[in-house]
Amino acid sequence: xxxxxxxxxxxxxxxxxxxxxxxxxxxxxxxxxxxxxxxxxxxxxxxxxxxxxxxxxxxxxxxxxxxxxxxxxxxxxxxxxxxxxxxxxxxxxxxxxxxxxxxxxxxxxxxxxxxxxxxxxxxxxxxxxxxxxxxxxxxxxxxxxx
Length: 146
Prior knowledge:
The protein has about 150 residues and is an alpha+beta fold. The protein contains two helices and six strands. The radius of gyration is 15 Å and the shape is elongated.
């Protein structure tokens, strides 16, 4: 099913998506705009803003984790295709540079794609190309029973 395109993005078509809107309200709230989708690479842009801040006025680590999980999931599901669905089973995200505001770009690429599991790495950089956060997600491939 195709998810509605956000401005400047392409629809994300993922097998097994029963909602008809893969991005969902949470991803829209974060402001993630997926700009490239292949089974080998996912790219998204998003704007760090006050709605993402923790009490000290910087982007909350959970936001970075959510972006990492989202892009890894889209990449893994796109690669697996009609064969099944994927679910994240581990997310490990490191934070390198505090961000208060500004444009960020996150890019996901596969580390391992196997029959049962996949691992995707996601790196987020600021407008100057400096690494802000880097995460890795392990996903389980689920196949229909029958």
